[in-house]
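Internal ticket #5521
Category: modeling
Description: The requester needs a full-assembly model to guide mutagenesis choices. All entity lines are attached below as received. Residue total reported by intake: 810.
Assigned to: D.W.
Attached entities:
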Amino acid sequence: MSLIVQKFGGTSVQDINHIRHVAQRVIETKKQGHDVVVVLSAMAGETNRLIKLAHEANPDPDSREYDQLISTGEQVTIALLALCLQSLGQPARSFLGHQVKILTNSVHSRAKIQSIDATRIFETLKQNCVVIVAGFQGSDEAGNITTLGRGGSDTTAVAIAAALKANLCEIYTDVDGVYTTDPRICSDAKKLDKISFDEMMELASQGAQVLQMRSVVFAAKYGVKLVVRSSFNKNEGTLICKEDKPMEDVVVSGITLDEGEAKLALRRLPDRPGVASRIFLPVAKAGINVDMIVQNISADGFTDLTFTVPSNVLKETRKLIEKVGSEVGFDKIEADEDIAKVSIVGVGMRSHSGVAAKVFETLSQNKINIEMISTSEIRISVVVKKDFGKKAVMALHKAFDMAQV
Amino acid sequence: MSLIVQKFGGTSVQDINHIRHVAQRVIETKKQGHDVVVVLSAMAGETNRLIKLAHEANPDPDSREYDQLISTGEQVTIALLALCLQSLGQPARSFLGHQVKILTNSVHSRAKIQSIDATRIFETLKQNCVVIVAGFQGSDEAGNITTLGRGGSDTTAVAIAAALKANLCEIYTDVDGVYTTDPRICSDAKKLDKISFDEMMELASQGAQVLQMRSVVFAAKYGVKLVVRSSFNKNEGTLICKEDKPMEDVVVSGITLDEGEAKLALRRLPDRPGVASRIFLPVAKAGINVDMIVQNISADGFTDLTFTVPSNVLKETRKLIEKVGSEVGFDKIEADEDIAKVSIVGVGMRSHSGVAAKVFETLSQNKINIEMISTSEIRISVVVKKDFGKKAVMALHKAFDMAQV
C-alpha cells in the first residue's frame, strides 16, 4: 500500500459531471489499496470570473482582499468532490489551506509555502477517508488567506506530497503529458515519456503551461516522483524524474512559447556598481520574478538595461522602478508588451555544441529578428516580436527534428 | 462618536454596482464620525446556486461539506466590498468567521454562535478601517466551517453588535421596515415605526422574512438596539425595542404567512408518559425546530400527535421519527406539505379579549377551514390548506383594520 497525491486542474472539475468523473478515478485508485490525497483547482473559468469582479470593484485591487476573494473557487470544488465521493459510497473530507495549516509567508497573490502540518491529513486518512485539499491557497501567521499565484495548485500538490512523503504525485490535466512543444502550435509535437527535473524547470519557467515552475523546483528538491497525465484517458503520461544517461542523447527536449511577458528598458543608466541591485531589490522584495536581464556594453559611462517580467505585473514593476529612478538617475523607462519569448531546452546541450548557432541560423532563414538573447546551461531563449512567436516555434521544432514519426 | 453595525442582505449586494452603493452608504456613516462594522450576506441567488450544486453532487449532502461549500458566497461579497471601499479611499478589511473567531457549536447548517473574539475587530477599527465580516458563517473548535442557517447573517450582525457593545445595529434590506403584513399580499400593508422584541420574535418565528428569528432573540437578550431599514432609500425604518405603553393599545401589530412548513401526523400513538419526549428528543438533538405541536384527546389509550417542521427538514425529521417508531409503537406517520400557517401577533392581546374568536369568525365567513390551532400570550396561529393562505391573511388584515389610511 502506498500514498498517492492526485491533483486535478480546472478543466477536470469544470462542472458536476467532470467532478463525478474525478471521483470515480479517485475511487479506482483507492480500490487498488492506496491512500489518496486529492488537490483541486477551481472550476475552469471561475478564477478568471473572480479576478474580473475584483477589477470591477477596484482597478488596482488590494492583494489581501484579492486573495480573500479568489480563494473561494477551490473551496467550491473541494466540497463538491467530497459530496460526489460520499454519494458513491467513499468517505471523504475536504480541507481549506488553513484547516491543514498550509502556512505561507504574507506575500499575497504569490505566497510561498513555509510548512504544512500533516497531522490532520494522516488522522483523516486513517479513517479510510479520501482527503481533499484546496489547491492554490494557504494562510499566513495572522490567519490571512494567501494564494500561491497562477497554477499554484500544482505547488500545493507537490508540497503536500513532500510533507506526507507520498510515493507518487500525479498531476491530472487536459493533455496527455509533456510535449516537445505546444501541440496547438505544432500538430506533430511528440509526447515525452520522461523528462528530467532540470529540463522541466526550464520549460515551466519559459512558459510551458503544463506544470507550474515552483512545483517542479519543489519536486526536485524533495525528490517527489511526479507524473503528468490526462484526466480524460488512461494513457501513461510523462514522468518527471532525475536525469539519466539516455536523456543526454537527445539534444533538445522541448520548445516553449511565452506570450505573457513584457519588456522594460531603462535608457542611459549610470554604469557603476550597485545600480542594478538598487533597481532589482525592490522588485524582488515585491515577489516579482524578473526573467531575462540584458545589459549592453557601456558607452560614456552609461548603459542600457533591458529585462522582462510577466505582463500582469508590468504596471507594478514600472511603478517600483520609477520610485528609485530619481535616486539611480536614468534617462527614461520604456515598456513593450508586443513580445514573445521562444526557448529551447535540453540537457543534451551540455554535451552537444552548436545548438545556439543552429537556433540563430534557423530564425535568420525565416526572417525573424531577435531582440534579446539569454542562455543557461541547458536552455537558449530569444525574444522576438509577438507576431513571429509561433512561426519561430514551428521553424525550430522542424529544424531540431522533434516531430513524432 | 459611536460604533454602528450595518448588515446588508443579498439584494443589496447582488452585483458590483449595488456593492459600490453599499460602500457609499458605509462611507457616509463613517464620515459622520462613527466606527462601522459591516456584515454581509452572499449575492442574491448565489447561496441558492451553491445549494443546487450541492444537491447535484449528492442528493443527501453531508452537512460539513455543504457548509464548506455554501459559506463561499459571503466570502466573495466581503472581499468585493473591501475593494470598493478602498477604491473610494476608505481603508477597509474583510474577515471570515474563523478570522474573527466566531466560534460555534458543530451542528452544521444551523450552528449556534458561542463566542466572538472582538480583539481583532477593535484593533482594525483603531486603524480607521471599516471592518467587514462575513455573515452566516463561523467555525467550530476543530476549525470546520459552520453556517447558521437561512438568514443567519442577521444573527451574525446582532451577535457582533452584542460582542462589541455597539450603539446600534442596522439591518439593511430591500423593504422599508417591518410591515403589518407582507405588502405583496396586502398592498395596503402599513410600515410600523416601532415594534417590541416580543412581537418581532413571534412575527419572525411565524415566517416574517424581514429578520431572522434568532437575531431578534439575541438582540432582546443583549439589549441590542435594532433597526430594520431599506438600503435603497433614506427612510427611517422600523425600530425594534423594549415594549412600551402605547404599543399595548394596538391589538394586532402584524400578520404573517408561512408557506415553508410541513405537517407530520403520528396516528394511534400509545398515550403514556415519556412518549412525546422519546419522539422529540432525537429531533431536537438534530437541531430541528418543531413548531406547532397538537395532541388530540385520548381514546382507548391511544392518541394522534401532529406537528409542523420546516419543509426542508421534513425528510430528515421523518427518518429520525421512523427510527424510534418501533420502540414507541404508533400505527403510521403521515406527511403533508400542502399547508400554510397564518399568524397574528400583538402585545395588545394581553389586555384585549376576543381576538381568537374574531380570527375564527373571520376565517369561517371566508369559508376557510382550520386544520390546526396554536396560541401564545401574544399570538394566534392557524394552519390552513396552502391555497387559502393568502386569502386568510387578506381577510384578517381587513378584519383587524390594519391597513394604512
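Resolution: model delivered.
Comment from assignee: Chain A has a mean pLDDT of 92.
Ticket closed.
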